[in-house]
Write a structure and sequence with these properties.
By secondary structure, the chain is α+β, with helices and mostly antiparallel strands. 42% of the residues lie in helices and 18% in strands.
Length: 909
């Protein structure tokens, strides 16, 4: 995962020294360590480290608890223990016996992740003191009082195996895992974090409890709080809760295993059912904290980026492969860099392999250029800056840096990328991209073997001693994300050219802006026969426009510190934007150039078609894709060629191959224009200036053919059970669906919204408790509901992943719960918890700027405001159990549900 760059600061902090942070009263036993760029570290007497990254401009709070234990710390027979603990931590403590359910009730977005060097638990919520207090108290209690019980391990075991099998379904993940196992001879990085199946299935509970007591202690953990919170109160709360935990007397021994320099090429060949070929070259490189890792990171972009990278030019543009990639894992100890390509089954794997290796290991003959380094540096620093402006992403990035040795590496890595020279990248490339340091093909004897530098551990402490960093990032305003305040602050208007505009200006951290532009295209008759031309047209927009190549467009967006995405289909074209206040005008101008002057280069179209076909081919035997496609086609009443028709895999491939440059250009000429467009922006900008610029850029742009939304009414689906074989897939997929005529303005809407949330909308739902908690047959299970805002047309869907041998238990559990709720209804307590969780989730979503921009854009077409959201909130608050149960019974009847099962069932009895 890439670590990212900071922004310039506001006038307020511009006059303060680097590392300035407001003084916070220190509770007894707490010491302040340092402040760097607005982030402050405190230490408790028991060894706990605390990081505060306050940002009042975003009304959410995120808390990460990072334990410095991962798969690297597991001993023989213990693989998977760190990951098992991640699951069992949510099973509760004596004081909090139903922790995960309580989080759902409070509307927390919570989860945990395990990796090689750390385990991270995190939660985000709409900022309020009560939730912060509860979560801190649970987190502190869970550190040393979690059950870690045999009974919970037994029920969770199937879920963990299910997660393990889900990874085995993916050819790339399987090849990556096995390549790492071959690349490392001794180090634990060669073992999958999820663990060996034998170790996980036979884990000794006493050993697991000992592992927990050893590593889950205050002196081995860091608490990170970001977003909106009272620093003084929160520091005291942490001191009062975590601070009560005694400092352990045990001593954690440092790990010291380091693989020797690799002597000779290594290889792995994986044979499984699939529809794509993969070639992966793996090289040993320095640890993430090493001074050379910045050059390694830049090198992976130079080689693996699309469309600027060397591999894209050597493999994709020559049609030897459909996709390429390059990345390096940011590990605490000596790590690996990966480069690879994906190609269809009729492609030459041997030719692609030879080209891949020649391109990577040919840096001596074709040295890295200054232009390549600068382009990679610009991309890195853009990502850093945008991440630094987001409190939630900052917390995750700090957790990653902590795992490397110290949180200040987050900033120090940025400094190293800035300072990296062409010679540094060239030196690293020549040192590590060597045949004898590669894991890939066959062994080739040589009389003059070359050896990479010996790996070495990194001592981060002297690197960050006294480190001050730059000035703290500019802060935003404290924004109250209530529907009433959103509407009162939003400027809505219609420009002379017809574009509808909704602008919500507010000061944001780092002066960031999120925007969305939507072009509505055609009508039912004129769009007939345009799929997939419409989708390919939208994707082709930024692959060359206004005299700029695809590479030049990407370079300019990177220099403008902007994430810009173009998408769409036959009915719609979209542009999503994330940038900064100072760059918004230039980003809009460049986006307008892309939209209004696309080149539609025939070579780029051929590459895009090859990518699409390869992707579709890969889906043929994937359980999820097979089930989703089958359900989308079941009962579909539209003829082939209609935009609401659902194609099968063969039709999609044939229609994609049939698209020509002329068809793309004609579709664009017929339908593209801004006279039926919606634009919304949220963030730090001048609304009048934005409106004037939009009028200038798009005011005269009109589509040749008119627009009228293609209707999408509800249609009947014959109840049935569909079953599909997907051979050699360790994981299976389940779907259940019902269609019914309900619009989001109907009286029943709020009641069914709550009913769905109670049935399958969270970790306290009926489905979760039965299928995940009680039966333990699914890692992920839930239900979703969507009702159109245009017409009475709604879809309710339940889904789950599971092991094929558990299909009977899964089916029985889902059918029994559908029947039970229809018969007995939800209890008052269930609906009380669901109501609170749903309302908290809706509030959390409104606190996200990108969600707000998308929501405002969607509202424009039907002249809706956030008063509608407030109305739904009030209706949810007022709902009675009788109303919710009546809505569920009215629309969900198990005898009318379509059930779909896709997996490898050949050995299931």
């Amino acid at each position: 995962m890439k670590i990212l760059k900071t922004l310039l600061v506001s006038v307020l902090v511009a006059f303060a020294p680097a590392g300035f942070a407001a003084d916070v009263p220190l509770p007894q036993g707490v010491t302040k360590v340092t402040s760097v760029e607005g982030i402050t570290e405190y230490n408790l007497a028991n060894g706990l480290r605390v990081l505060f990254a306050p940002d009042a401009s975003k009304p959410t709070t995120t808390l990460n608890t990072t334990y410095l234990v991962g798969s690297r710390n597991e001993s023989y027979g213990e693989t998977g223990m760190a990951h098992l603990l991640e699951h069992l931590m949510f099973k509760g403590t004596p004081a909090y016996p139903a922790a995960f359910s309580e989080m759902s009730k409070r509307g927390l977005r919570a989860n945990g992740t395990t990796w090689t060097d750390r385990t991270n638990y995190f939660a985000s919520w709409a900022a309020n003191d009560a939730t912060l207090d509860w979560y801190v108290r649970w987190s502190a209690d869970a550190m040393t009082h979690s059950f870690i019980a045999r009974k919970d391990l037994d029920t969770e075991m199937t879920v963990v195996r299910n997660e393990m099998e889900r990874g085995e379904n993916d050819p790339f993940r399987s090849l990556l895992e096995k390549s790492m196992a071959v690349a490392y001879q001794w180090h634990n990085y060669g073992k999958s974090t999820i663990g060996a199946r034998a170790d996980v299935e036979n884990v000794n509970i006493e050993h697991l409890q000992a592992f927990y007591r050893k590593y889950y202690q205050p002196d081995n953990s860091v608490v990170i709080v970001t977003g909106k919170f009272d620093e003084a109160k929160t520091l005291k709360l942490i001191a009062d809760t975590y601070g009560k935990i005694p400092k352990p007397t045990r001593v954690l021994e440092p790990t010291y295993t380091v693989d020797p320099t690799q002597e000779g090429e290594r290889s792995i060949v994986l044979r499984r059912v699939g529809d794509n070929q993969l070639v992966l070259a793996t090289y040993h490189v320095p640890a993430g904290g090493s001074e050379d890792f910045a050059a390694v990171d830049l090198l992976t972009t130079i080689m693996g980026d699309t469309p600027t990278g060397r591999l894209h030019k050597a493999l994709v543009q020559t049609k030897q492969a459909s996709q390429v990639f390059g990345f390096a894992f940011n590990f605490r100890e000596p790590t690996l860099a990966f480069f690879g390509a994906r190609l269809p089954n009729d492609g030459s794997l041997d030719t692609a392999k030879q080209t891949l290796i020649a391109t990577l290991e040919g840096v001596a003959k074709e040295p890295i250029t200054a232009e390549e380094v600068e382009r990679a540096r610009t991309k890195f620093l853009k990502e850093f800056e945008l991440t630094a402006a987001d409190p939630e992403r900052v917390g995750i990035a700090l957790s990653t840096a902590i795992a490397l040795g110290d949180w200040r590496l987050f900033f120090l890595t940025r400094d190293r990328v800035r300072a990296a020279k062409v010679d540094d990248v060239q030196r690293v490339a020549r040192a590590y991209l060597l045949p004898d340091n590669r894991t890939l093909g066959l062994f080739i004897p040589t009389s003059q073997p070359q050896r990479a530098p010996a790996p070495a551990l990194v001592n981060v402490a002297p690197m960050v001693k006294g480190y001050k960093g730059e000035a703290a990032i500019a802060q935003g305003e404290a924004f109250d994300a209530t529907p009433q305040n959103i509407d009162s602050r939003t400027h809505r208007s219609t420009l002379p050219g017809g574009m509808k505009v909704a602008l919500l200006p507010k000061r944001t951290r780092g002066a960031t802006v999120h925007a969305r532009l939507v072009l509505h295209l055609g009508d039912e008759q004129s769009l007939f026969g345009t799929s997939p031309t419409g989708s390919l047209t939208a994707t082709m927009l930024n692959r060359g426009a206004g005299g700029l190549t695809r590479q030049q467009i990407q370079d300019q967006f990177d220099k403008l510190k902007a994430r810009v995405g173009f998408g769409g289909d036959s009915t719609i074209a979209t542009v999503s934007i994330e940038t900064t206040k100072e760059n918004l005008p230039a980003v809009l101008k460049l986006a307008a150039t892309v939209l209004r002057k696309p080149a539609f280069d025939s070579a780029e179209l051929e590459m895009l078609k090859a990518e699409r076909v390869t992707t579709i081919e890969a889906q043929r035997k994937e359980p999820t894709a097979v089930a989703v496609m089958a359900l989308a086609r079941h009962g579909n009443p539209y003829p082939r060629g209609h935009v609401r028709y659902e194609e099968d895999f063969d039709e999609s491939i044939a229609d994609t191959k049939a698209v020509t440059p002329e068809r793309v250009k004609q579709f664009y000429a017929d339908f593209y224009g801004a006279d039926h467009a919606d634009f919304a922006a949220v963030g730090d900008f001048d609304p009048e200036a934005v409106k004037a610029l939009l009028a200038e850029l798009f005011g005269d742009w009109k589509s040749a053919k008119g627009y009228k939304r293609v209707p999408n009414p509800s249609y009947a689906m014959t109840p049935t059970q569909l079953r599909f074989e997907t051979p050699d897939k360790a994981n299976a997929f389940f779907l259940a669906q019902v269609r019914f005529p309900l619009q989001d303005s109907d009286p029943d809407y709020a009641a069914f919204l709550l009913a769905n949330h109670a049935f399958g909308g969270g970790s306290n739902s009926v489905l979760w408790r039965r299928v995940r908690e009680k039966e333990g047959v699914s890692y992920g299970v839930g239900s979703g509901f969507n009702a159109s805002m245009y017409e009475p047309s709604a879809v309710w869907r339940a889904n789950a992943i599971y092991a094929p041998q558990n299909v009977g238990r899964l089916e029985q559990a889902v059918r029994e719960e559908l029947a039970r709720v229809s018969r007995d209804g939800f209890t008052a307590e269930q609906l009380k918890d669901a109501k609170n969780g749903l309302l908290q989730r809706r509030r959390l979503e409104r606190a996200q700027d990108n969600f707000l921009a998308n929501g405002l854009a969607a509202q424009l077409e039907i002249d809706r405001t956030y008063a509608y959201a407030e109305k739904i909130d009030r209706e949810i608050e007022a709902l009675t159990p009788e109303q919710v149960n009546a809505a569920f019974r009215k629309y969900i009847d198990a005898s009318k549900v379509v059930f779909v099962y896709a997996g490898d069932f050949k050995n299931v009895k």
